[in-house]
Design goal:
This protein is α+β, with helices and mostly antiparallel strands. The chain folds into two domains: 99 residues, BMC (bacterial microcompartment) domain (Alpha-Beta Plaits); 93 residues, BMC (bacterial microcompartment) domain (Alpha-Beta Plaits), CATH 3.30.70. A four-stranded antiparallel beta sheet has the order 1-2-4-3, with helices on both faces. Strands 5-6-8-7 form a four-stranded antiparallel beta sheet. Strand 7 and strand 8 form a beta hairpin. Helix 2 packs across helix 3 and helix 5 packs across helix 6. The chain is globular and about 50 Å long.
Length: 206
Amino acid sequence: MSGFSLRSYVFIDRMQPQSASHVAATCQGDVPVAGMSELFIEVAPGNEIFRVMDVALKAADVRPALQIVEREFGLLEVHAASQADVLASGQAVLDHLGLAERDRVKPEIASTQFVTNVSPYQAQLINKWRKGSLLMSGSSLFVLEVAPAAYATLAANEAEKVANITVVEVRAVGRFGRVFLSGSESEVQSARDAAVAALEQVEGGS
């Protein structure tokens, strides 16, 4: 397929409560809940996502939360209570494309920011557009920017597994994805380390 790119292939084994709630609050399709498994696939050109979604849904008992086409890329999310169904759906997509999971683009962290004792004014600015929980003044804030964008979902979910943090926002569409996490300084540091480690462990090409 000329010019095709498997930008992201992100399997999440067990959705954490806040991460699942964020997807549910922002999706246009079926609502996932905590404990489910899910798969994000991002492709270029964007229109290819329609055929990819068709293959994913027909291959296994999965439900779709997202099917988005923007300027350059297409993104989908499917989920199920069964990890096996989600994996089978993903494998069917890979087989259809003639690719393996390792043929995805490896995530690249573009930047990380760590802010302690957030100003109440900055907190209010972020709260104006966040879709997750409120950012409270005086807390610490970690912001991660990653490409391809869909990997932001993995970073947020893995951070929530290990730390008592608040998921303020996850943006997984476009050229760059962004994750905003808040909490105490020590918990946010733990979340940062888990998010970065999860991305660094993803195998893929350039």
